Amino acid sequence: MLVPQGSGGAAADSPLQDPRLKIIKGDVTDPAAVDRVFEESDDISGVIVALGGKTKLVGPTMLTDGTRNIVNSMLKKTVKRIAVVTSIGTGDSEKQAPLHFKALMYTVMRSIFADKNNQEKLFTDPKGPGHNLE
Predict the structure, then answer these.
(1) Exposed, middle or buried by CB within 10 Å (0-12, 13-18, 19+), for 91?
(2) Residue (of 58, 60, 76, 65) closest to 30 by Cα position
(3) What distance in Å separates the CA atoms of residue 21 and residue 1, rounded to the nearest whole number?
(4) With contact defined as beta carbons under 8 Å apart, do 34 and 69 qualify?
(5) Which pLDDT tens digit goes with each residue over 56-100?
(6) DSSP per residue over 32-75, as a string?
(7) What is the share, in percent, of the chain residues with pLDDT greater than 90?
(8) What is the rounded distance in angstroms from the CA atom of residue 116 to the CA atom of residue 27?
(9) Cα-only R_g, the chain
(10) What predicted TM-score, i.e. pTM, was given to this entire model?
(11) Which of 28, 58, 106, 125 could share a disulfide with 53, CB 3.0–4.6 Å?
C-alpha cells in the first residue's frame, strides 16, 4: 500500500509504513474476506469505514454491501464502535449541500448518492444491522 497523492505530501507514492498499522488486503464485498480481517485481529476496538471509488469501477452498491459486511463481522466479534465517512448531501445533510453540489448529486452522481444514502440507512433505520452500534 502506498501513501496517497494529494494528502501524502513529499511521502506520496512511497510505501505506507507504521508499526501501529496492520494492513490486511481483502475485498469488502466478500463477507468471508471481511470475516478473516476480524479473525486475524483480536484487538479491534473500533472500525473506520472510508469506502469509495467510481461507481463504474466498484459497482453501484459497493458502499452499502461492503459496509453491511463490515457491520455483520463486527457484530460477530462484538465490536461496537464504528465511524463511517460518507459525504455532505447524504442523509439529513442533503439540505446543507450547496446548490451547485446538489445539481451534481441529482444528476451525474445520482447512483453514488443512492448507494451512500443506503449505506447510512444501515445505521439510521431502526431495523438496520448497525442501528445499535456506537
Answers:
(1) middle
(2) 65
(3) 11
(4) yes
(5) 778 899 999 999 999 999 999 999 999 999 888 888 888 888 898
(6) HHHHHHHHH-TT--EEEE-----HHHH-TTHHHHHHHHHHHHHH
(7) 57
(8) 18
(9) 16
(10) 0.84
(11) 58
